[in-house]
Amino acid sequence: MDPRLAQLLQMTSLYGTLAKFYEHSDPEKHIYFYKKHIQYEMQLVQTYWALHGHGQPETHAWDNHYHA
User: Fold this and answer.
1) CA 12, CA 40: separation in Å to the nearest integer?
2) d(CA 1, CA 37)
3) What confidence category does residue 57 fall into, taking pLDDT thresholds of 50, 70 and 90?
4) b/e per residue, 6-35, with b = 16+ CB within 10 A?
5) Which of 42, 52, 59 shows the shortest CA–CA distance to 8?
6) Per the count of CB atoms within 10 A, which of 2, 54, 56, 64 is most buried?
7) Is 33:40 a contact under the CB 8 Å cutoff?
8) How far apart are the C-alpha atoms of 33 and 61, rounded to whole Å?
9) Average pLDDT for residues 37-66, to the nearest whole number?
């Protein structure tokens, strides 16, 4: 596996886990970690497609929601 892809996968997982952990106990931390999770998730997908020679995946309407 590409090292950058592996790192992004690890960070996506870490921030997803932290977001889930704080979901009901600390809303501010939950939101913070969830935004970081989405940020790394988007980078992960973009990197995956770039490594596989497909360029950018199709943009969907829900993509704009995550960039707000």
Assistant:
1) 5
2) 21
3) low
4) eebbebbeebbebbeebeeeeeeebeebbe
5) 42
6) 2
7) no
8) 23
9) 78
Cβ–Cβ contacts within 10 Å for residue 37, how many? Answer: 20
Place of tokens 């886990």: 17
Q: How far apart are CA 61 and CA 7, in angstroms?
A: 28
Start-to-end CA span in the chain (Å) = 31
Band the pLDDT of 64: cuts 50, 70, 90: low
Query: CA geometry: angle at 51 spanning 61 and 20, to 5°?
Result: 55
- The residue extents of the domains of the chain are 8-57
Say how far apart CA 48 and CA 45 lie, in whole Å.
Answer: 5
Separation between Cα atoms, residue 52 and residue 39, nearest integer Å: 20
Tokens of 6: 């592996």
Task: Tell me what the mean pLDDT of segment 25-49 comes to.
Answer: 97
The tokens for 36 are 């970081």
